[in-house]
Design brief:
Blueprint: E1 4-6, E2 18-26, E3 34-36, E4 41-47, E5 50-54, E6 57-61, E7 66-69, E8 75-78, E9 83-91, E10 111-112, H1 115-130, H2 135-146
Parallel strand pairs: 1-3
Antiparallel strand pairs: 2-9, 4-7, 4-9, 5-6, 5-8, 7-10
Length: 147
């Protein structure tokens, strides 16, 4: 049996509590590291094919697809062949404190089929990679629109 662990999120900038990274799942015969945290997690597949596990659901993950893992769900990403590269954005619920947005406690559909939502996500990625002036404000707005 595999260990399941709590993933603590430490944010170097408490005023901008967002984790952003480009991840790669590789074939190694393992399902991946099962973990959970209080924040939502947005995953966007760039290349390869993977599987997002969220609690007991297995969601196929292909290029151009956006998946949302709800807060407090045990999850991981793995692939059964080659590798799967994907963007990951994890906005802390504190990012929207005082905004009136209902962050958490909502049942979400993991597969995002709305093209406009995928475009919002990719716009947030461009802002996070480019770090132009006022990118933090733009990212807050774009991620807030995804909620």
């Amino acid at each position: 049996m595999q260990n399941i662990y709590y993933e603590a999120h430490l944010h170097p900038e408490p005023g901008f509590p967002i984790i952003f990274r480009l991840d790669t799942a590789r074939t190694d015969g393992e399902i991946g590291h099962l973990h959970w945290h209080e924040a939502l997690e947005f995953l966007y597949c760039l290349e390869g094919e993977g599987i997002v596990v969220s609690d007991e659901e297995k969601i196929p993950f292909r290029p151009g697809e956006l998946v949302v893992v709800d807060s407090n769900h045990i999850h991981t990403v793995y692939t059964e062949q080659g590798r799967c590269r994907y963007y990951c954005i994890i906005p802390s619920p504190s990012l929207f404190e005082g905004s009136g947005l209902p962050v958490g406690g909502r049942a979400l559909s993991p597969r995002v089929t709305d093209q406009a939502a995928r475009e919002l996500f990719l716009a947030a990625v461009r802002e996070l990679e480019g770090k132009a002036p006022y990118y933090k404000t733009a990212v807050r707005s774009l991620i807030g629109s995804l909620y």
